[in-house]
Specification:
This protein is an alpha+beta fold. It has 15 helices and 16 strands. Bound molecules: adenosine-5'-diphosphate (ADP), magnesium ion and zinc ion.
Length: 488
Amino acid sequence: MPIADYIPTIGLEIHVHLKTKSKMFCGCALSYGEAPNSRTCPTCLGLPGALPVLNEEAIRMTILTGQLLGATTPEVCKWDRKNYFYADMPKNYQISQYDQPLVVGGAIPMYDQYFPKPLRDGAGEDGVVGRIPLTRIHLEEDAGKSTHFGASSGLDFNRAGTPLMEVVTEPAIRTADEAAAVLASLRQILVFAGVSDADMERGQMRCDVNVSVRKSAGDPLGAKVELKNLNSVAAVRRAIVFEIERQCGELDCGIPQRQETRRWDDDRGESSDMRGKEDAHDYRDFPDPDLLPVRTGAWVAEVRGRLPELPHARRARLVRDHGLTPYDAGVLTAEPALAAYYEEAAAGAAKPKAVANWIINELLGRLNEQQTPLASNPVTSGALRELVGLVEAGAISGAQAKEVFAEMFATGAAPAAVVRERGFTQVSDDGALEGFVQQVLAAHPDLVERIRAGEAKVVNVLVGQVMKASGGRANPKRVSELLARALA
Ligand code: ADP
Ligand code: MG
Ligand code: ZN
C-alpha cells in the first residue's frame, strides 16, 4: 500500500540542560568549554560516600516550565535510581524520577513560523497551529561525556550532574514537520522563560525520537522504534522521514514490527540495528535512599507569581497593541534579547511600526551582513528611538536618516550629534522646494506629458528627481504635494 496511506505516530523525549548556576546535586559550577574534568567534585564523580544535595533552582525552573505549558505539579515528587553501567556514569546509576515526576500533563504549542509555508492546517489568531499533549516532565542528571580516540577513550565529567529536564510527549505527533515545530517552539519557550539556552549544537537540548506506523486509524498503535540522542532539528526531521519509509517498506513485505532501539546515522541518512537489544534493559528503578521526596506546594505558589509571557502571547500583543504585522512581530520575538530591544526602542513612540521597520530593515540587515551578534550591537535602543523620532518629526529626511544610521552603526555616535556634524536638516520650506520642483519639471517635459496622459504613477519618478536635486534633504511628503499642485 502507498506510504501516504499509512498513519505514522511519533512521540518525543526531549532532554534539556537547565541554566542553573551549579549542578543538580553538588555545588560544581555549570559552564561550557572548560578544560576536561575541571568542574568536578566527589559527588558528581560518584565517589563512595559522597552525598547529593538538591538544587532548588532546577526544581523551580522545571515547575515553571510545566506551568508555562499548562501542566500540573503533584504535591509530592520523589527521586529514583535508574541503574545501569556506563563508563560516563561512575555511580552506576542515574538519579531520575520514575513514577512521581515534578510535572504531569500540559501541552507544547506549535508556532506557525516553524512550519513550511503554506500551512497545511492554518494557524489560530495567536500563531499557534496546534498543541501536542505532554505525558510528563521530570528532572534528572546528565552523564559525563566520552570521546573515543582510536584504541582508547577519554572521559570528561564536567557535564556529569548537569540538571537535565526531560520533556515527554504523548504519541500524538503525526509528521516530521510537526516534530520539528514542536522542538523549535519548545526551544523558543525555554529560552524566553530563561530556563535554558537550549542550544542543540552545544548539546543543551537533545531528543529521542519514537516512531511507529499503522494501516488504519482503527488499529492499535504499531510497535515503536526509538532513535536516541538526535542533536539538531534537521536530523530529527530526516530521521522521522527515513524511519516512516523504512517501516512502511517492511510492513509491505510482510515483516512484523518489533519494538527496538535503532541508531540514527545522520551523515549516511539511515537508521541501523543496534543488535545489542539495549531496550531489553531493566533499569531496576528504586527510590534513592539519599534523597527525601519533595513537597512542591511552596515552589508552585512562588512560580505562579512570576510567570513570564510566552513568545506567542508577546507576538500577539505586539500585533494588537503596536499595530505590527504578524510577520514583523514574529521576527522581533524570535529571541528574547531582540524583543526586549524592540520594546525599549518603541517605548513611548508615536509609531511603533516605524521603529519595527528600522530594526528589521536596517539594523538586522547590517548586523547580519557584518555577522555581529545583537549583544554587540553598537546602536542603543535609546539612540534608535531618537533617530526614528527625528524622522517622524520631519527634522531630517528618510535618506538623511539612513546616512545617520550608518554613522551610528559604525561609530556608536548619538543621532543628534551626527545630524549636527553633517549639517543635516530637512527642507520643508516651500520657497526652496518650489525651486527644485520647477527645475525638475523643466528638465523632464516627457514625464510631464505622460502624467497628463493619465500615467499617474510616473509622478513618483519626479518626486525622486526632486529628492535628488535637493541632495536628499527635501521633505518627500511636501514635494508630492507641490508637484500635484504644479501639475494640476
Ligand atoms: P518507554 O517506557 O519505552 O520509554 P514510553 O511509553 O514511556 O516508552 O514512551 C516513550 C516515548 O515513546 C513517548 O514520547 C511516547 O509518546 C512514545 N511512544 C509510545 N508508544 C509509541 C508508539 N506506539 N509509537 C510512537 N511513539 C510512541
Ligand atoms: Mg525512552
Ligand atoms: Zn560536583
